[in-house]
Amino acid sequence: MHNAEEAKLISQLAGMDVINGELFKQAYDISLDASEFLDRYQMYELLKGPYDKEGACIMVTAGSEGVASELWAEKLFGMYTSWARRQRCKEGLVEKIASISGHIQFAALEIESEYMFGTLSGEKGMHRMIYSSVENSGTGETS
């Protein structure tokens, strides 16, 4: 079915007094698909830059705060990798440099998918984790 036909069917179903469960589930699933399509369309309409339609490379570098920074870099890199997989993108490790302690000092991830550069362009800058230290009771430390 096409989206216009699906919308018409949903409208007709809404006007019926009696709907069986399976019909309602089908209409609901179709409405979710249409909503997802519209969300993607709106996003792509915003991405008009010269490189927005291309793939992307994410580089994660641990800060100079020691093992805590390296662990944070490892966690952040893992989150980006998992996100790329959930998006069903082709992703691959470009480079990974381990620190003396064996954690990530630097890692680069390439993600191949249409509009990935534009989608991730807001992810530039420094991501810090603020945590409470038991030793410094109540003061925040960053990694």
From TrEMBL:
Gene3D superfamilies registered for this protein in UniProt: 3.30.70.1660
Pfam assignment, any one: PCRF
GO-annotated biological processes: translational termination
SMART domains: PCRF
Ranges of residues in domain Peptide chain release factor: 12-123
PANTHER family for this protein: PEPTIDE CHAIN RELEASE FACTOR 2, PEPTIDE CHAIN RELEASE FACTOR PRFB3, CHLOROPLASTIC
Protein name: Peptide chain release factor domain-containing protein
Organism: Aegilops tauschii subsp. strangulata (Goatgrass)
